[in-house]
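user: can you give me the structure for this one chain? tokens are fine.
assistant: on it. calling the predictor now.
[tool input]
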Amino acid sequence: MTVIDEGVYKPKTKETSSAFEAMLNIVQGALGGQEPGILQGDEILATLKDDTIKGPDKKKVIEKLLGTGDVFDSLATLAEKITDYQEGGDVGQSYAN
């Protein structure tokens, strides 16, 4: 089982799986090498995909979760590549490596 298997968001394609893995790696680096909690990754993705939150406020939320805003642009770019995200959780088949 991978860290992706444990979360709410389930990538449906190889591309979105790669983007989410890259996002989790950035989160891990921002946390000083600690293993990212999958819920933290899900919360970051949900924040970045939430159209009701404006850019500067998204950055503040990410900063609060990670203790830094330095990785916001990278995370936002990766979130744009995740095209199969559904608010409230994903149902159905996920991409299997």
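assistant: here you go. Residues 63 and 70 are 8 Å apart (CA to CA). The helical segments are 3-6, 14-30, 38-49, 55-66, 72-81.
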